[in-house]
Amino acid sequence: MPALSTTRVVLGAFIVVVLGAAGLFVVDAGSTSPDPVAFDETVHSGITLEAERELDDDVELPRAQVFYSQYQYVVGYYGVETFADDQQQPEHEQRFGHPLTVYVTDYSGTGVELDDDGYPTTDGSPEWTDAETAWYVLESDAETPAGTTVVPFTDRDDADAFADEYGGDVRGWESVLEATYDRDDAAVARDRVDSHRQLADGRVEQTAEFTERPTSSVVGSDADTIQEAIDEAPADTTVRVPNGTYEETVEIDRPLTIVGDEDVTIRGDGNGSVVTVTDERVAVQNVSIDGVGETTRGDGDVDIDVDDEELGATFMRNYASTDAGIAAYSADELLVQDVHIDTPASGILTHGTDDAAVRNATVVGPDDPTDGLAGILLLQSNAVIETSTVDGTTNGVYLYRSPSTVVRSNSVTGNQLGVHLMHTDESLVTDNEIHGQTNTGVYIMTGPERNAIVGNTIRDTETGLSPGGSDTYVADNRIENSNVGLRVDTASSIYEGNVVAGNEVGADVTGMLPTNRVVGNDFVANEEHATVTSGPLRIWSDDGGGNYWQGAAGVASGDYADRSYTPTDDVDKRLHTTDGTPTLVQAPALEGLAGLEGTVPGMRTGSITDNYPACEPINADRLEATGWDDQAWTCYETTRTPTDD
């Protein structure tokens, strides 16, 4: 976080420090109740910034802001129900402390109504009111982008009137805190992994039939050029292209399959895209493509359906008009299979295309990856991208507003960013080999929700995995031999079954909300297992289980060591790099320090603590595959003196 400004506002014994550069309020809990702060100066939770920015101007979503006893920032919740659900979660109070003061938006006197989406609209901005004295309408028709919401009022009559018009029950604060709320969270992303794989299988099966279409035209026999054969071919047939090099650009404007026989190259003139697809159910198979133009940011004049008022409209138009080996627009059920593309710009580009399949494709970028744009670029599309190779581009696989996409079993090497998700929700990145990126292996940004990153091998990269947003599921990945293995910048996410080994920094925690569940991972042979920015205590254990940390193993207490481990502590973080650690971890002084840190909040801020460090690696086979398994050791079973072995 940026350095604190010198501005200090004293409210009795309650001290508020304004965090100038970031615009956040830093709180030192005192004995008096603070005044509410501007919502923009809180740490937000509940919906993404994108969803907030795309709401109509007169929409005023229900919000809460909470001052905690052990969390130095004010937390702003979109939806009272978001706070109520969070405070019911295990170890929430241990992470944040107890709520000192809670304020909620007050819809009394605002003329509140619901629009067609169920979002509350008002004549003016609601004021803040004390949560404990407000009245709440639950289970009404009111919505936020995250789902059903609770609507607060200071006046009971106003709450009753709202319930009469829009349904629901009027309740007090204690009832709100005890209610159950149905929220899509990281467990939903975890539970959808198998269904996403089935969705990808379905896309492959759906497009496979295009390879069985009857031949209607053979280039060289029935037509002089590929374009002439396309123009003459009936829909739902195959144009066959014999061995050779064809210097032309082509447009496919009807459902056809274009398939090369033996060694076929389609070569453009270095201007624009080489193959353009403008209809659905098209297949391009078994061809090589080169001669692509060099434009990586077009002039925006491409004929696509974009609402110029929506967020990112200019970005969309410019990127959709970049040059590519294959550029597809509104081309649902596109199949690109067994193709090789050399490109100085992009390899495969889709816009407004659903249920596409890219299989066994190879895209090679320019000599300098920073000159290109993307190997495979999806804009407002969804697809399965599988068993393909992308090398030497700025973005290996780039998904922009392309939810429900599955990227699996690919080789992504030598790019700046390996797999890059932007404004993309509910996608699956799985079983990929991602090596040698100059910046980041898998980078998820701009506040997306419920993505799953599962079973990938990411290594030899500046930053291995940097998932952002919320409710992300990160599991069973091998992240190794990088400067930073894992950058934790998410909220309310699940990290489990990962092996983080041989990195300079295993995990760098930058997210400000301590709401992630990090359990069942192995940290081995990292110079530093974990680092953190300023912020609260992060507890990386849950329900009696924790992670394996090389250096934490001491005396066994069941499957776990008998003392907690803090990888950010000045002593603990050196244990795995210090000779004689098996003896040191049993020292009474070290145990006493761990106990003190566990009870004094001031010693726990800006740190990570695992209350149940595992005695042996949890993901032994995955760790063995990294080659760092010989660096791991186990606990001593019953004695406080090291055994001979």
How is this fold's topology laid out?
Layout: E1 8-11, E2 14-19, E3 24-28, E4 43-45, H1 49-53, E5 63-68, E6 75-78, H2 80-86, H3 92-96, E7 99-106, E8 113-114, E9 120-121, E10 127-130, E11 135-138, E12 143-144, E13 147-148, E14 151-153, H4 156-166, E15 169-171, H5 173-178, H6 186-191, H7 193-208, E16 215-218, H8 226-232, E17 237-241, E18 244-247, E19 250-252, E20 256-260, E21 264-267, E22 275-277, E23 283-285, E24 288-290, H9 313-320, E25 324-329, E26 335-337, E27 340-342, E28 346-351, E29 356-359, E30 362-364, E31 374-379, E32 383-386, E33 389-391, E34 395-400, E35 406-408, E36 411-413, E37 417-422, E38 428-430, E39 433-435, E40 440-445, E41 452-454, E42 457-459, E43 463-466, E44 468-470, E45 473-475, E46 478-480, E47 484-491, E48 494-496, E49 499-501, E50 505-509, E51 517-518, E52 522-524, E53 528-532, E54 537-539, E55 548-549, E56 556-557, E57 560-561, H10 581-584, H11 588-599, E58 607-609, H12 620-626
Parallel strand pairs: 4-6, 16-17, 17-20, 18-21, 19-22, 20-23, 21-24, 22-25, 23-26, 24-27, 25-28, 26-29, 27-30, 28-31, 29-32, 30-33, 31-34, 32-35, 33-36, 34-37, 35-38, 36-39, 37-40, 38-41, 39-42, 40-43, 41-45, 42-46, 43-47, 44-47, 45-48, 46-49, 47-50, 48-51, 49-52, 50-53, 52-55, 54-58
Antiparallel strand pairs: 1-2, 2-3, 5-6, 5-7, 7-10, 8-9, 11-14, 11-15, 12-13, 56-57
Write structural notes for this entry.
Residues 416-552 form the Periplasmic copper-binding protein NosD beta helix domain. Keywords: Repeat. This is Parallel beta-helix repeat (Two copies). It holds the Pfam family NosL. This protein has twelve helices and 58 strands. A hairpin with a 2-residue loop joins strand 1 (8-11) and strand 2 (14-19). The longest helix has 16 residues, at 193-208. The protein has a domain at 33-183. The relative contact order is 0.07. With 645 residues, the protein is of the alpha/beta class. The strands form ten sheets. Strands 16-17-20-23-26-29-32-35-38-41-45-48-51 form a 13-stranded parallel sheet, with helices on both faces. It has a 13-stranded parallel sheet with strand order 18-21-24-27-30-33-36-39-42-46-49-52-55, with helices on one face. Mean pLDDT is 88; it is low at 1-23, 595-604 and 638-645. Helix content is 15%, strand content 34%.
